[in-house]
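Students often ask why we bother encoding 3D structure as a string. The short answer is that it lets us treat folding as translation between two languages. Here is a chain of 293 residues written in the first language.
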Amino acid sequence: MSKKLIRFDWAVKKLLRNKANFVILEGFLSELLFEEIRIQEILESEGNRETYEDKYNRVDILTQNSKNEVFIIEIQSTYEIDYFHRMAYGTSKTLSENLSLGQGYSEIKKIISINIVYFDLGQGKDYVYIGKTNFEGLHEKDLLQLSHKQKEAFLKENVSDIFPEYYLIKVNQFDDVARDTLDEWVYFLKNSEVKDEFRAKGLAEAKEVLDIMRLNKDQQYGYNRYLDYLHLKASETLSLKSEAEYKVREDEKSKNVVEFAKNLILLGSDDDFIIKATSLTLEQIETLRNETE
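And here it is in the second language, the structure alphabet:
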């Protein structure tokens, strides 16, 4: 029987920056990108620095692989309406930070943005989306390609290989049916569980390293605080949703009452009758009478 493991978002922040555990991140990235990924180092960024202001709602890790590509791994637990904009900002900032003064533009590093979200972002039926930059002809509808000289100079095959690339995993939209090894990883991201039959790269190591029982006392305290925070945010989100739905119902009810009162006015009903029938005040009824004249 599979056991409950540490959540991946907390593990990224606390455990997976250790070089001994790179194999877990390498496995995840390899399954997502369908190629062997080897992490060279964890880079320092604002997101790597732990501060009180983090509030645990965002976890990101900046890493570089053996091909000199830079990966942004960001996990968002709570709803953000402008998350797409933050994705764009994150890649732009990372791209500019990794181009030293005096370097030519051809030296920019490939930026790959991995975004794992635990809320419904945008509209779409799938749970894994890939975004790449291509240039399509306005009239011929062909894709703009690199010239032979550019391919040799940049060691790239396609124009899209130069621009940032985005991967978006909408965890809560996954149906818990693991059809392939990438799905096994998404299952783990959603349920913090690795089934015995799973064979995806990195999951065997995750099953061992992310065992809750391996945490020391301080780590267990910090992890439990994080879980409490997630429960609190979930309750706040539910409360806000309930309040919004209640307000919509009340607004609709108010509109119906106003329309009913206007009809009574048109039928010649007196103020006392309308007050009893609608619970509106005399001032509100007088206002409606002026509007219907």
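Translate back mentally: The first strand starts at residue 39 and ends at 43. Keep this in mind for the problem set.
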